[in-house]
Write a structure and sequence with these properties.
The complex is a heterodimer. The relative contact order of chain A is 0.18. Chain A is globular, with a radius of gyration of 19 Å. Helices cover 78% and strands 4% of the residues of chain A. Chain A has one domain: Orthogonal Bundle (ABC transporter involved in vitamin B12 uptake, BtuC), CATH 1.10.3470. The longest helix of chain A is centred in the N-terminal third of the chain and has 31 residues. By secondary structure, chain A is mainly α. Chain A starts with a helix and ends with a helix. Chain B has a single domain, classed as P-loop containing nucleotide triphosphate hydrolases (Rossmann fold, 3-Layer(aba) Sandwich). Chain B has ten helices and ten strands. In chain B, strand 7, helix 7 and strand 8 form a beta-alpha-beta unit. The radius of gyration of chain B is 17 Å and the shape is globular. The relative contact order of chain B is 0.19. The model of chain B has no long low-confidence stretch (mean pLDDT 92). Classes of the chains: A mainly alpha, B alpha/beta. The interface between A and B is medium-sized, with 29 and 39 residues. The structure holds adenosine-5'-triphosphate (ATP) and magnesium ion.
Chain lengths: 299, 238
């Protein structure tokens, strides 16, 4: 039992990182009803830029965070212009496929920037183990978890207390009505990508910093974890993304403890498989789907 | 205030609006009637910058606004309350209203809804923090109207504001429209409830297949309402 609870604590800590990635996917999906597959690789490239600065120029933590986030945002905007803005509104599949093509391109760029397989990623969290009763937690995980909570709070403030945040939610809900309100939806698409890239860049930094290394596979890894967590929670739902991320973290941590790394990786797919059969809309999605259907019948 | 001349709107091969000219003077209430598919919504949408203008000219307050984008037109003070209400079902009533004020709000949302609006729409005032989807049909229409007023428009375009409402609610909407006009708002309303619309209109147009087939002062057309209704009926019979 203690083991299980310990795993759950670890899972929640790590799952908070998944939650951030899932939020990135779900925000873009909610606003545009399209998937951006190159979200993970954009973060990977941002992290590579950060590492590159770290290896060649400076060890200043703030600078490296900035470089990571700014590069991720720049790449995010590049992807938006190329795969979403330039592609017709009704061609969702074309956007998804071209975002996959860009993925390959981004990996190529990363390989040219830093050709070896693995690079150290700067760790700014001091690593100690903190005892809480029978449990212990690593301090870098606590830092990551707390920073994630801060990010979630900021995102919430942005979405619910600011004008662009309201516009983002309005466009997700009803794009046509938003146009009547004088909301310029192509600006909002752009904004969604920018916000999501900031979130992704920070998430990437936190996750890699706790891991203290980066490889080109981080792009694939981040896209998979983010997509799975999003689908577990329910596509397009913000609460769902957070719950899905945490659930994925907890399940993986337990699978790893009881079964090893291979079982951990399989457990993620198995979990998704079961969820899609039992609750195809995800944890929160089902409710939203029925709620919206009821809503549109009445409105 | 608003002058549309020789406006044409096409959807591919379909010509929805065919060289229409209308005028709305400041402070007037002008109504447009016509059968389903006559091109009424297309005309409003062209004015609001939602659908493309094929040819013709739209002048608002002395300024040519033809071809401006929807958000630019909202900023100029023309707000449309669209057909079918188009509420935000997953946002609260308050947020729906705030979205109506989008083009005039600061970076941080001011969540206060003006008292005057709450007094005018008491049913909404009681439900500010419920979801848009939880309203009844009549309340939903009131929210759509209230949302349109949030931006303090100079011209309000209303597309079938009484569609699907019970007779009492229809009367409520017409009373509100007349009251808004009496307070100086310029209104262009598309309506199928011919008599009620004509009774409060300063001027009215009847559309058929994208063209104007009748026009005149509200009272004049009301005396001729048989003929007006025949235009609606004729197309309905087809
Ligand atoms: N998006 C569209 N694409 C193609 N044709 C359209 C589109 N919207 C409207 N039309 C066509 O244009 C014509 C006018 O439509 P419009 O919606 O303007 O009519 P309306 O007078 O508002 O009718 P209703 O009373 O049913 O609302 C119709 O023949 C319709 O089929
Ligand atoms: Mg119409």
């Amino acid at each position: 039992m203690t083991d299980f609870l310990q795993n759950c604590i670890d899972g929640v800590m790590f799952g908070s990182g998944y939650a951030l990635l899932a939020l990135g996917f779900t925000l873009v999906f909610g606003v545009m009803k399209r998937l951006n597959l190159s979200f993970g690789p954009s973060i990977m490239l941002g992290a590579y830029a950060g590492t590159w600065v770290y290896l060649n120029f400076s060890q200043n933590a703030l600078l490296i965070v900035l470089v990571t986030v700014i590069t991720t945002v720049a790449v995010g905007i590049y992807v938006e212009r190329l795969c979403f803005w330039a592609v017709r509104r009704d061609a969702a599949i074309a956007s998804m496929v071209s975002s996959f093509a860009i993925w390959m391109q981004l990996e190529e760029v990363a390989m040219h920037l830093l050709p070896e397989r693995t690079y150290p990623f700067p760790t700014f969290f001091t690593s100690t183990v903190i005892d809480i009763g029978p449990f212990f937690v690593r301090s870098e995980h606590i830092s990551m978890f707390l920073l994630t909570l801060v990010l979630l709070a900021l995102l919430h403030l942005f979405l619910f207390r600011t004008r662009p945040g309201l516009a983002l939610r309005a466009v997700s809900d009803n794009p046509l009505a938003s146009t009547y309100m004088g909301i310029n939806s192509s600006n909002i698409f752009f904004l969604a990508f920018a916000v999501v890239s900031v979130l992704g860049g920070l998430a990437g930094f936190l996750i890699l910093s706790a891991d203290s290394q980066v490889t080109p596979f981080f792009g694939l890894w981040a896209t998979f974890k983010g997509l799975i967590a999003m689908m577990l929670g329910g596509m397009g739902s913000l609460t769902g993304a957070i719950l899905g991320g945490l659930l994925l973290g907890v399940v993986e941590a337990n699978a790893f403890w009881y079964g090893g790394p291979l079982i951990r990786d399989i457990s993620a797919y198995l979990l998704l498989f079961i969820m899609l059969i039992v609750r195809p809309g995800g944890l929160v999605g089902q409710r939203i789907v029925t709620q919206q259907q009821a809503a549109y019948e009445r409105v | 205030m608003l002058a549309v001349s020789n406006l044409t709107v096409n959807y591919g091969e379909v010509q929805a609006v065919d060289s229409i000219s209308i005028k709305v003077k400041a402070g007037e209430l002008v109504s447009i009637t016509g059968a389903n598919g006559a091109g009424k919504s297309s005309m409003l949408n062209a004015i609001a910058g939602i659908c493309a203008v094929a040819s013709g000219k739209i002048v608002f307050a002395g300024e040519d606004i033809t071809g401006l984008r929807a958000h630019q037109i909202v900023k100029k003070g023309i707000v449309q309350v669209p057909e079918g209400r188009q509420l935000f079902a997953t946002l609260t009533v308050r947020e729906n209203l705030l979205a109506g004020r989008y083009s005039n709000s600061g970076f941080l949302l001011d969540k206060v809804i003006p008292d005057s609006l709450v007094q005018r729409f008491p049913a909404l005032g009681e439900r500010l923090d419920l979801l848009g989807s939880s309203l009844s049909g009549g309340q939903a229409q009131m929210l759509a109207l209230a949302r349109g007023l949030m931006n303090h428009p100079e011209v309000l375009l209303l597309d079938e504001p009484t569609l699907g409402l019970a007779p009492i609610a229809v009367k409520e909407v017409f009373d509100l429209i007349a009251e808004l006009r009496d307070q100086g708002l310029t209104i262009l309303v598309v309506e199928q409830n011919v008599r009620q619309a004509l009774a409060i209109s300063d001027y009215a147009y009847v559309l058929e297949s994208g063209r104007i087939v009748m026009q005149g002062k509200g009272g004049e057309l009301l005396n001729n309402s048989r003929l007006v209704e025949s235009y609606l009926g004729a197309a309905r019979a087809i």
